[in-house]
Design brief:
Bound molecules: dioxothiomolybdenum(VI) ion
Structural class: alpha+beta
Oligomer: single chain
Distance between the termini: 63 Å
Largest sheet: 7 strands, mixed
Helix content: 10-25%
Strand content: 25-35%
């Protein structure tokens, strides 16, 4: 029997995607579909005094211009605008009133027969503002930052810094070697390929079918129902394909509100597609100033860690994650102390962006560890090994599995780390200085409650459905692999349905929690299907499985087979035919019973090689090895793609990416992918991904952890450390650009 889990199965949605058969949110059509174009605020803070849409309305083909002055009713409470992933505060309400909270805020929607007409007319809408003083610079408000209260638990509460342990002050005073440094990560944006879009189909009778780009169809469904006071059965949200989102689609975004508003106002189908420029006010990785101080004993063991972070949030919501706790989690240190402060600025609220908090925090920690290794005259990898911890340091508990040691070993071996000469500027290739750097990565292996429905037909085909998204990570494919193995059917016999709010319950796809959760859900629901089949089989005359209990049989090769004696078997098709049953349907809601006794994390070790032109300071990233421990790998091909994508993003974080705000206007200056630099093919060279063996007997029955996020964590640090090794120059603010190397 062929099994699918652990194989490099190709994406089952691959053909649909490359042939264009897969429809994205902006590609659905309806008779008489109208098109909306968004007018955005020129100022960062103040009020709208007057909106003059008369010129826009005179354009032939323009149907209406909606603003806070003439829109249909919307909910009035903060609660109505909150969503499953909203931070504390008062969520932004699109087109709600005359208040301007950030530059680029949507303030009107021009609706027309054609998108080009809408866009042209949008440029004719005249707006008068009452401008107020704004602040967008984290450094300008640093002294007014609000401190967050620490909480006792980590990572169970990912929303606050944990309590300190020991006494860092005493430990630092006694330390033989200390390192303190301040590290900076700028605002960064997700920049998914697919633009945010919502096509709202007016079904008549006030019912709506909404094709929206989102990471959570049910989250958007509930949000639309509460914002517009609609009945759950009158709204269906679909997002069968998502062209990348990386966290920007966790919360409902404003395009869906605007499209629904227009559809309800005009009783017609409406599509709203954002421009690339408008995508820069959907949320971002918050700018983060971090101070880390480390104290080491003689032998290179860590005794004190302090990690203080200052991050930005909007004026109306408090967005933060436990940025600093990764430091105390990762390495053995008897003393640790954390601090986190928030600076409120007149920008939109930040949002989760691939490995939120860890991508920024572990960058700082791992650069600081590199600097400590230099101070200790110790190989950076050796320092990590001396500080290695087999227990979750924050909660003093074991891991369900932690194969980070294997990551270090296999990664170092594949990279050739032992050939590194320790002195900076000591390795070169002609005019280029060679630098080798390494870093550790860590992320959580979370699981969430999830519902799965399986419908098995008498012809041996099964449909497996769940309201989760596939944000490009390969969810369709791994669901089919797991279902095929659990039902004992070929993968071709499995159909996957997802991205539809009417399907069994799923939270947003994010946090790397869907692969483990949905796989577990499929396995559990398949148990019920198997039990149903066994009941039918036991009714057959002379059943070869007579007397067998549900746990004594398995599904394999299209048959129900005795585990004790594989010659005792009966085909699924026969069981169902003889039982007179056309279909077996089961649906289970699976929750993850976590007693908190074990920590669940994924880890990685990243090794990077840079070559730096000695005269010009141009940095080329020539090689990366990323060795990852993420439990059982369901699909080695899609998993490798996830990690490779994370590494490429880490290259961007280290060397290219930075959202530049003109603080005098409070506006993003480089709101396009020409000036917001991301790695291109010429920047990406040899990336090797290794998955180390990491059996995990307790995390879930299949031993699966997620790996969407872990790929990016630590990459920027490994590259920054390589740049130091090449040049002897330590740049502590990202991105490391040519000018900073010359400073
Ligand atoms: Mo995840 S923050 O949705 O990349």
């Amino acid at each position: 029997m062929q099994t699918y889990i652990g194989t490099p199965a190709s994406r089952i949605d691959g053909r649909a995607k490359v042939t264009g058969e897969a429809q994205y949110s902006a590609e659905f059509n309806a008779p008489g579909l109208l098109h909306g174009s968004v007018v955005t605020s020129r100022i960062a803070k103040g009020r709208i005094l007057r909106i003059d849409a008369s010129d826009a309305l005179r354009v032939e083909g323009v149907i209406d211009v909606l603003s806070h002055e003439n829109r249909p009713p919307m909910a009035k409470t903060d609660r109505a605008y909150s969503d499953a992933t909203a931070p504390k505060g008062s969520a932004f309400r699109p087109l709600y009133n005359d208040r301007i909270l950030f530059s680029g805020q949507p303030i009107a929607l021009v609706v027309a027969e054609e998108p080009e007409i809408a866009r042209c007319a949008a440029s004719l809408v005249r707006v008068e503002y009452g401008e107020e003083a704004h602040v967008t610079d984290i450094f300008g408000r640093r002294d007014q930052a609000i401190a967050l209260e620490p909480t006792a638990k980590f990572p169970d509460s990912i929303f606050a810094p944990p309590k300190p342990r020991g006494s860092v002050e005493t430990a630092l005073a006694a330390a033989k070697v200390r390192h303190a440094g301040e590290y900076y990560v700028p605002i960064e944006h997700h920049n998914p390929m697919e633009l945010y879009a919502s096509t709202v189909i007016w079904e008549g009778g006030g019912k709506l079918t909404i094709h929206d780009k989102t990471q959570g169809v049910q989250n958007v469904h509930d949000y639309v129902c509460s914002v517009f006071g609609m009945k759950p059965e009158d709204v269906r949200v679909m997002s069968a394909y998502v062209g990348g989102a990386f966290g920007s689609g966790l919360r409902p975004q404003y395009e869906v509100v605007l499209a629904v508003l227009a559809a309800r106002a005009l009783k017609r189908s409406v599509r709203v597609v954002l421009t690339r420029q408008q995508m820069y006010v959907l949320g971002y990785r918050p700018a983060m100033i971090q101070r880390i101080e480390l104290g080491a004993r003689d032998g290179g063991t860590l005794d004190a860690i302090t990690h203080d972070a200052v991050t930005v949030t909007s004026q109306y919501e408090e967005y933060y994650r436990q940025e600093t706790a990764w430091s105390g989690l990762l390495y053995t240190s008897a003393n640790a102390k954390y601090g986190h402060k928030l600076v409120k600025v007149d920008l939109c609220t930040p949002c989760d962006m691939r490995a939120p908090s860890a991508a920024s925090a572990v960058y700082a920690l791992e650069c600081a560890m590199d600097e400590l290794a230099v101070a200790l005259k110790l190989d950076p990898l050796e320092l990590r090994l001396r500080c290695y911890s087999d227990r979750d340091q924050n909660n003093n508990r074991p891991y369900s599995s932690k194969s980070l040691r294997a990551c270090y070993q296999e990664g170092a071996e594949a990279f050739g780390w032992d050939r590194r000469s320790p002195e900076p500027r000591s390795m070169r290739d002609g005019r280029e200085l060679i630098g080798w750097g390494m870093a550790t990565g860590v992320w959580e292996a979370l699981q969430v409650p999830i519902g799965v429905r399986i419908v098995l037909s008498a012809n041996g085909h099964a449909e497996v459905s769940c309201a989760t998204s596939d944000i490009g990570t390969g969810t369709y494919t791994i669901m089919a692999q797991v279902a095929a193995d659990m039902l004992g059917l070929p993968m071709e016999n499995i159909t996957i349905k997802l991205g539809d709010s009417t399907l069994p319950q799923s939270p947003v796809e994010g946090g790397s929690w869907i692969a483990a959760s949905v796989s577990n859900g499929i396995a559990t629901t398949a148990d019920e299907v198997r039990a149903d089949l066994l009941r039918l089989a036991n009714q057959m005359p002379n059943s070869p499985l007579a007397g067998a209990g549900p746990d004594e049989v398995a599904l394999a090769d299209g048959k129900l087979v005795s585990k004790v004696d594989t010659s005792r078997a009966v085909s699924i098709v026969d069981v169902m035919r003889q039982g007179g049953v056309n279909r077996i349907e089961e649906e289970k809601l699976v929750t993850f019973a976590d007693d908190g006794s074990k920590a669940h994390n994924t880890h990685s070790a990243i090794f990077a090689e840079v070559k730096v032109d000695e005269d010009l300071g141009v940095i080329r990233l020539t090689r990366v090895v990323s060795a990852v421990a993420a439990g059982r790998i369901v699909n080695t091909k899609t998993a490798q793609s996830q990690i490779m994508g994370g590494v490429v993003w880490g290259i961007g974080m280290a060397l290219h990416e930075e959202t530049l705000v003109d603080h005098s206007f409070g506006r993003v200056m480089n709101a396009n992918i020409a000036e917001y630099h991301v790695p291109v093919n010429a920047d990406v060279h040899d990336i090797k991904v290794i998955f180390v063996d990491e059996p995990d007997a307790t995390i879930n029955r299949l031993g699966i952890k997620g790996l969407g996020e872990i790929g990016i964590v630590g990459v920027a640090a490994a590259i920054a450390n390589a740049v130091y090794h090449a040049t002897g120059k330590r740049v502590r603010d990202l991105p490391i650009t040519v000018d900073k190397l010359q400073r």
